[in-house]
Write a structure and sequence with these properties.
The complex is a heterodimer of chains A (about 150) and B (about 475).
Chain A: E1 4-9, H1 19-30, E2 36-41, H2 47-52, E3 57-64, E4 72-76, H3 93-104, E5 109-116, H4 128-145, H5 149-153
Chain B: E1 3-13, E2 17-23, E3 29-36, H1 42-45, H2 54-59, H3 66-81, H4 87-119, H5 130-136, H6 138-159, E4 168-169, E5 172-173, H7 179-186, H8 189-207, H9 221-226, E6 233-238, E7 250-254, E8 260-265, H10 270-273, E9 274-277, E10 286-289, E11 299-300, H11 303-309, H12 316-326, H13 339-358, E12 378-385, E13 388-396, E14 402-408, H14 410-413, H15 415-429, H16 437-449, H17 454-457, E15 464-471, E16 477-483
Parallel strand pairs in B: 2-15, 6-11
Antiparallel strand pairs in B: 1-2, 1-15, 2-3, 4-5, 6-7, 7-8, 9-10, 12-13, 13-14, 15-16
Helix pairs in contact in B: 3-4, 4-5, 4-6, 4-13, 4-16, 5-6, 6-8, 8-13, 12-13, 15-16
Classes of the chains: A alpha/beta (about 150), B alpha+beta (about 475).
Chain lengths: ~150, ~475
């Protein structure tokens, strides 16, 4: 059976930055399967490389900067991407995949699902457009993991 | 023409800061300053809040070492309650504090400093990062990840959250530890000991002199000689038998020769022996040892200081390593390059100590909290954070509402030494007005050796990129490098 990890990340004290975090929390209420692990964190760190190497599929959920707040985008992540940046305390999804490949010789098929943010201010709440788009963001992840609505009902 | 070089932002450290290096008319380094450029002011925003909120509120200062702030904050609150917390609560606090030491030290050594140590200070910065390490030495990268996971798992298993756990409270702990959690942590101990020993051996091998007889030098000879290799005092907590203690004890101060100049100082009386100077060019204060005045009272805290002040670690393997470490010098070990070495020994100690603590039968006792209202109007909590001695001092009114707070943060204690360190390294490596990458990196790396947490020490938000500027005697920027 294919195993999937969903990682929603962001800072709950910085407005829309937390939307990935909240989406993952919502998914953990909806999805009940031993083959699906849902993880929330403030930021991506190298330790996640060890975690994702044990899965066949990984879905990252994050806020993005774009022209139209609330716009949802799904993209497959290129695991051959070679990061060229200074690490301080956090990574991007491509870098986590690179670490997984280099250190554990295994990398899952991975997707990044994002929603354009409106505000990254010091807030504990999402902006209107992002709040309205949260259910769509959750649906986009469910679509990737092929988790059927009927499964949700049961 | 006299010039100034500015490094802004600094990379691979926590927080925001910059360095300026001032050159005289002959292009020789005249002075250097480490500026911390952000401010949050937690002491002020806690005023008016109930004191019981302090451990959790103060933990928000930092996402890397929140447990240290939880511990110091809770200890200050214990004094306000005027209670002796249950022994099991003390054991659990000690264990979780050591979990934080392991994960924070692993982050510093394996993620932030390993690129310099494994790849070399002069390597192209495009390769000199964690990705370069995982290509050059994947075993070390995997080891760093495992140690981080282990430290975080101790925090998460005991406290429920990796970041900002709410488990440590005024008067003790909110919940006891279960046998399942204890056994899960203990089962990982042998693997962790093996990992840290492997990396200690690697680090020590990098110090071994190589080459022909008359040219036998460590590849880090220049860094050892110039990375804040200076006379200073060393300060920290030791327990009543002179052993390494991250949770409790009395303050000991040792000089460069290794002589104890003050011992069994009561941490609550810190203001009798520590004072803080403010400089207009930095938000980070400059603490100093009061009896010696400013700046002669310069002291260092953290891993290097702790290993210089103790009589012994108190665990078998760490004590063997300490004996070898002490062989580096007849007095105190002075070069701040050895912070890295000391950090690895402290990880080893923490792993051994966690095993000891969790093996005590009392660890599973369910009585973990003392209940009381405010009985004192003042409390001081002191603990050893990963970066050094951490002081939380609170004053409340009769209703337990916070009236005033003062924090002396580990990184701040090292401020004078960091400034002297960048001057020393700049004098060694900066020549003329041409800025070269290797020079830039060494100036950064001396700061990185201290593993400063500027978010903690200024209570500021963010990461710490670095910028270098070269400024002439008229204040004009004539050259700069900036990295983010």
């Amino acid at each position: 059976m294919s195993r999937t990890i969903i990682i929603g990340y962001g800072n709950p004290l910085r407005g829309d930055d937390a939307v990935g975090y909240y989406a993952a929390q919502k998914l953990s209420e909806l999805v009940k399967s031993e083959d699906i692990t849902i993880h929330t964190c403030h930021q991506l760190t190298p330790e996640l490389a060890a975690d994702i190497s044990r899965y066949d599929k990984a879905v990252f959920i994050d806020a993005s900067i774009g022209d139209t707040p609330g716009t949802i985008t799904t993209a497959q992540i290129d695991p051959t991407h070679i990061p060229n940046r200074t690490f301080s305390h956090q990574l991007d999804p491509e870098s986590v995949l690179t670490c997984s490949q280099a250190l554990y010789d295994r990398v899952p098929v991975a997707y990044l699902v994002t929603i354009d943010a409106d505000s990254f201010g010091y807030l504990e709440d999402l902006s209107g457009p992002v709040k309205a788009g949260l259910s769509g963001l959750v649906d986009a992840v469910l679509e990737i993991i092929k988790y059927k609505k009927t499964e949700l009902m049961s | 023409m006299a010039k100034t070089i500015t490094i802004d932002p600094l990379t691979r450290i926590e927080g925001h800061g910059k360095i300026t290096i001032h050159l005289n008319d002959n292009g020789i380094v005249d002075n250097a300053f480490f500026h911390v450029t952000q401010f949050r002011g937690f002491e002020k925003l806690c005023e008016g809040r109930p004191f019981r909120e302090m451990p959790s509120l103060m933990a928000r200062i930092c996402g890397i070492c929140p447990v240290a702030h939880l511990i110091a904050g809770a200890k200050a609150c214990d004094q306000i309650l005027a209670v002796q917390i249950p022994r099991t609560a003390t054991l659990l606090r000690r264990a979780i504090n050591l979990g934080q030491i392991i994960q924070s030290h692993a982050l510093s050594f394996f993620y932030l400093s390993a690129p310099d140590l494994v790849l070399g200070m002069d390597t192209d910065p495009a390769d000199r990062n964690i990705f370069g390490v995982l290509k050059e030495n994947p075993q070390m990268a995997r080891d760093g990840i495992r140690l981080r996971q282990f430290g975080q798992s101790i925090i998460e298993m005991l406290a429920g959250e990796r970041v900002h756990p709410a488990w440590i409270i005024a008067g003790g702990m909110s919940e006891p530890c279960t046998q399942e959690k204890r056994d899960a942590i203990l089962s990982q101990i042998p693997e962790m000991q093996k990992i840290v020993q492997r990396n200690l051996d690697w680090f020590k091998s990098s110090l071994i002199q190589t080459g022909q007889s008359s040219l036998r030098v460590s590849k880090f000879r220049d860094e050892i000689r110039t990375f804040a290799n200076l006379q200073s005092l060393f300060l920290g907590l030791v327990n009543d038998t002179g052993e390494l203690d991250f949770y409790d004890g009395k303050i000991r101060v040792v000089d460069s020769s290794g002589k104890i100049i003050a011992d069994k100082l009561e941490p609550s009386n810190y203001s009798e022996f520590i004072a803080e100077k403010i400089e207009p060019w930095s938000y980070l204060k400059f603490p100093y040892y009061k009896p010696r005045g400013y700046p002669e009272g310069i002291y260092r805290v953290g891993p290097l200081a702790r290993l210089n002040i103790i009589d012994r670690c108190g665990t078998p393997q760490a004590d063997l390593e300490l004996t070898e470490f002490r062989g580096l010098s007849r007095g105190s070990v002075l070069s701040s390059f050895y912070y890295h070495y000391a950090r690895l020994i402290e990880i080893l100690f923490a792993i051994e100590k966690v095993e000891q603590l969790l093996s005590e039968p009392a660890i599973l006792d369910t009585h973990v909290k003392a209940i009381a209202g405010p009985n004192n109007l003042e409390g001081v909590g002191v603990a050893e954070a990963p970066r050094g001695t951490l002081f939380h001092h609170y004053q409340v009114n009769n209703e337990g509402i916070m009236q005033w707070a003062n924090l002396i943060i580990a990184t701040g204690n090292n401020n004078l030494a960091m400034n002297k360190g960048i001057l020393q390294v700049a004098k060694q490596f900066v020549k003329g007005d041409k800025i070269e990458e290797g020079m830039l990196n060494r100036v950064e790396a001396v700061i990185r050796a201290f593993d400063p947490c500027l978010s903690c020490s200024t209570h500021a938000v963010g990461k710490m990129p670095l910028q270098i500027e070269l400024i002439n005697n008229d204040g004009e920027v004539v050259n700069s490098l900036r990295r983010s």
